[in-house]
């Protein structure tokens, strides 16, 4: 049967309503999985009511080689059956992003509708989103779940300030967010005063640009819901791809009738950016960052997250970009993610972290460091033969370099 | 696992069928269920839980050839294990309500696969110790008796489970030098030589194992029951009456200053049959004298009173010397205080050494060390193994070292702002002195 083929996949996702109606599945046809989804819904219900008078929620199920993780929202349920070695937290994050993507496509009105009409068939509403959902899963799986930020491209501060000036000179009051970005990286972001940008919203926008090829062929006007801005309605996105380039200018407005204004604003920004196109392309071309560019020879890989900027930088690859430099083969990156998770894990419990945390894990073939404090989080990989005192010095030097380099690494607030 | 009470526990055999000619649906459901705790749970709930457990086992078969191990909800952890052919045991642990915005929960620090497995194994093995395999109980004639035994046993298990404080299942070895050890061995061999009915012996002094001739798993079972974590004191406090028809776990006579606990004593002749892995069922005698416990496993299924008296006379003669040999060494080591907090565990011979300063281990530190240990165990199964780790949290520094994949050593220092290399230096200095006979790789 078709569904048994999809069960043999290494990582399978199911989205369905609380009434057991399939909404989306990563592999196979939702229709073929109706019986299976029905049984999963029954399982979830039984565990919710396992003891009479007590409400509970199923989180995950384990066998020796499979983890099945559940995310239950008000009206939609998400399940992942994972046979590779990803951590439970990482899988849960992917489910969370799937949910964010569904809300991004339909707004939270889908929840209201499904609560009032539990038997509603929501499959058609998600039509055409398969590749974007799949892309979202792949990108999220490459992220560290505890890094709550996005990873911009590196650019000298003065050049980024020039882009900021261009935006400042041309922005329209209807614009909530403005971006100069590629499918993988954010180069510059503008936000309206007193409006923040949540990293999940940034990821959703990036996913939109990446997944819909049609946005690259012509100037587009498309709705998107950014749940952390507001999950009740859409923002309207004006997107254009600069000529002979892979640089997008993206403007978002909460005014559905602001197409003309955003078009004018966007064209003006594009015209002024034309003179900086080479500079911008240079900043993209140097991504991902080779580790040697940070002047610390002994480090094989690092991830640095600045809490002030809410942004991160990573060497060797980037979660949004599936390119791996020779210094970081893909298989090793997957192993390293698991090791970073392990190094970071204790600090996720309030009883063990009060603003200062260090962990050094020494494997036979690698040494992994995690430093977490109120300013930043650093995870680094080095050779296992490096003594701990040398490792401390290296990390200290790396942090110093990165701190100094922050204005060029990250987009200013 | 500390602190988590049992919400429910049940044993079932999905292959059992009702015996009546036209069984009802309820009869089908009831006959599968061998035992359910708590017994006052509504029948409907009991049947649902068994059905759900069966269903979950079948559900995961669609994705994995390996059996279902555990189910984690926000408030509970369900552990499922097939303990014998067609017999499943399910234990549901209650973690209480700890609302959290994030996915992780505090219980995740304690619900590692090996910890959950140990809980189920512990339940099963301690029942097995006194009553043998569940498959020995014939369906349906022996099942009411089995149910009574499980009922009696499970109540004790439920009270006992959250009080278990040890991190590792192993042996605390008695500190004896070579000469003293050989003297003790001589004494024990005299007993075995004189009494050919004695199949195996185990000698324990104040909760520390001195010697055992049993295979490792059997030794661990008996040692855990009688000695680990001073368990004999818990057994005495239980004050369970000596009912030969009830579950024998925890039913012991008062510990005399010198005499038999299992054997002939003021309560009569009590010689339980014990079932141990790799050994045929045998009778167990337990002789106590001062801080010593001497276990004798007898070959024969019957141990007459005369045999017990003959053994008593031998032990009167031989034990004082054994105790004297051990006592002087033991007191010397006991009175010395370790300068560091550490915990040592050897996965091969299951030796545990916990420094005097690390006793007792508070709950937060317990969870920390437990999770570090789980990370070290986990890594050997997947990638290149984790051999050393140093972690600073706000409650302590912990450094763990794994030596030759079998030994784990944990060092604990108070929290401080010292850099990690300074902490490591301090620990290495201590370790190179204290563990000088072991290659630690430090």
From TrEMBL, chain A:
GO biological process: one example: vesicle-mediated transport
UniProt domain FUZ/MON1/HPS1 second Longin: residue ranges: 174-265
Domain FUZ/MON1/HPS1 third Longin: 299-406
Domain FUZ/MON1/HPS1 first Longin: 11-134
InterPro entries: FUZ/MON1/HPS1_longin_1, FUZ/MON1/HPS1_longin_2, FUZ/MON1/HPS1_longin_3, Mon1
Name of the protein: Vacuolar fusion protein MON1 homolog
TrEMBL record, chain B:
Domain CCZ1/INTU/HPS4 third Longin: 337-427
Any one GO biological process: vesicle-mediated transport
A Gene Ontology cellular-component term: Mon1-Ccz1 complex
Residue span(s) of domain CCZ1/INTU/HSP4 first Longin: 9-132
Highest taxon listed in the record's lineage: Eukaryota
Family: Belongs to the CCZ1 family.
Listed name of the protein: CCZ1/INTU/HSP4 first Longin domain-containing protein
Organism field: Stentor coeruleus
């Amino acid at each position: 049967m078709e569904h048994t083929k999809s069960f043999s996949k290494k990582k399978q996702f199911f989205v369905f309503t609380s009434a057991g109606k399939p909404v989306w599945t990563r592999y196979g046809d939702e229709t073929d999985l109706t019986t299976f989804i029905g049984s999963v819904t029954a399982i979830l219900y039984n565990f919710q009511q396992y003891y009479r008078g007590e409400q509970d929620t199923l989180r995950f199920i384990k066998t020796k080689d499979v983890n099945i993780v559940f995310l239950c929202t008000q009206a939609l349920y998400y399940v992942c059956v994972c046979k590779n070695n990803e951590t439970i937290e990482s899988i849960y994050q992917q489910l969370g992003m799937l949910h964010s993507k569904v809300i991004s496509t339909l707004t939270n009105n889908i929840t209201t509708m499904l609560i009032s009409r539990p038997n509603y068939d929501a499959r058609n509403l998600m039509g055409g989103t398969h590749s974007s959902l799949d892309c979202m899963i792949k990108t999220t799986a490459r992220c560290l779940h505890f890094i709550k930020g996005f990873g911009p491209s590196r650019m000298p501060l003065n050049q980024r300030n020039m882009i900021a000036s261009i935006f400042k000179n041309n922005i329209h009051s209807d614009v909530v967010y403005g971006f100069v970005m590629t499918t993988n990286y954010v180069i510059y972001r503008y936000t309206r005063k007193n409006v923040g940008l949540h990293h999940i919203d940034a990821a959703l926008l990036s996913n939109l640009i990446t997944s819909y090829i049609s946005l690259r062929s012509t100037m587009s006007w498309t709705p998107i819901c950014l749940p952390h801005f507001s999950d009740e309605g859409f923002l309207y996105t004006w997107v254009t791809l600069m000529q002979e380039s892979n640089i997008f200018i993206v403007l978002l407005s909460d005014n559905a009738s602001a197409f003309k204004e955003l078009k004018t604003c966007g064209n003006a920004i594009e015209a002024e950016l034309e003179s900086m196109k080479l500079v911008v392309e240079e900043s993209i071309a140097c991504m991902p960052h080779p580790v040697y560019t940070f002047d610390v020879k002994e480090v094989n890989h690092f991830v640095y997250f600045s809490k002030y900027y809410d942004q991160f930088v990573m060497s060797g690859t980037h979660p949004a970009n599936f390119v791996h430099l020779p210094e970081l083969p893909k298989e090793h990156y997957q192993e390293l993610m698991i090791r970073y998770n392990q190094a970071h894990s204790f600090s996720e419990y309030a009883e063990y972290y009060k603003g200062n945390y260090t962990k050094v894990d020494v494997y036979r073939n690698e040494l992994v460091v995690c430093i977490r404090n109120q300013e930043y989080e650093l995870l680094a990989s080095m050779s296992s033969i490096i003594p701990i005192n040398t490792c401390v010095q290296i990390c200290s030097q790396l942090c110093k370099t990165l701190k100094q380099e922050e204005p060029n690494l990250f987009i200013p607030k | 696992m500390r602190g988590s009470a049992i919400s429910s526990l049940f044993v079932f055999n999905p292959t059992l069928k009702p015996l009546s000619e036209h069984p009802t649906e309820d009869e089908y459901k009831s006959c599968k269920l061998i035992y359910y705790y708590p017994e006052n749970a509504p029948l409907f709930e009991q049947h649902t839980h068994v059905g759900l457990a069966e269903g979950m086992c079948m559900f995961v078969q669609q994705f994995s050839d390996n059996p279902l191990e555990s189910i984690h909800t926000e408030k509970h952890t369900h552990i499922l294990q097939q303990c014998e052919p067609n017999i499943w045991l399910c234990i549901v642990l209650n973690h209480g309500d700890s609302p959290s915005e994030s996915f992780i929960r505090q219980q995740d620090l304690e619900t590692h696969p090996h910890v959950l497995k140990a809980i189920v194994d512990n339940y099963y093995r301690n029942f097995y110790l006194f009553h043998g395999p569940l498959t020995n109980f014939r369906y349906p004639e022996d099942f009411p008796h089995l149910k009574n035994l499980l009922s009696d046993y499970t109540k004790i298990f439920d009270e006992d489970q959250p009080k278990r404080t040890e991190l590792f299942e192993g042996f605390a070895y008695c500190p004896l030098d070579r000469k003293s050890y050989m003297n003790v061995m001589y004494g024990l061999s005299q007993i075995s030589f004189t009494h050919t009915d004695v199949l195996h012996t185990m000698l324990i002094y104040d909760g520390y194992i001195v010697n055992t001739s049993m295979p490792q798993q059997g030794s661990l079972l008996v040692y855990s029951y009688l000695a680990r974590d001073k368990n004999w004191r818990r057994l005495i406090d239980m004050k369970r009456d000596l009912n030969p028809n009830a579950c024998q776990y925890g039913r012991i006579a008062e510990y005399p200053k010198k005499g038999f606990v299992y054997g002939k004593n003021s309560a009569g002749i009590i010689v339980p049959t014990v079932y141990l892995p790799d050994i045929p069922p045998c009778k167990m005698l337990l002789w106590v004298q001062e801080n010593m416990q001497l276990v004798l496993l007898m070959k024969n299924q019957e141990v007459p009173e005369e045999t017990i008296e003959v053994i008593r006379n031998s032990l009167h003669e031989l034990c004082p010397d054994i105790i004297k040999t051990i006592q002087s060494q033991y007191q010397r080591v006991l009175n010395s205080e370790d300068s560091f907090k550490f915990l040592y565990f050897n996965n091969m011979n299951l030796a545990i050494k916990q420094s005097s300063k690390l006793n007792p281990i508070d709950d937060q530190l317990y969870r920390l060390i437990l999770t570090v240990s789980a990370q070290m165990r986990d890594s050997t199964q997947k990638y290149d193994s984790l051999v050393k780790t140093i972690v600073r949290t706000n409650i302590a520094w912990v450094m763990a070292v794994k030596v030759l994949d079998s030994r784990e050593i944990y060092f604990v220092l108070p929290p401080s702002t010292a850099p990690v290399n300074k902490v490591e230096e301090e620990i290495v200095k201590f370790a190179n002195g204290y563990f000088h006979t072991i290659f630690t790789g430090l």
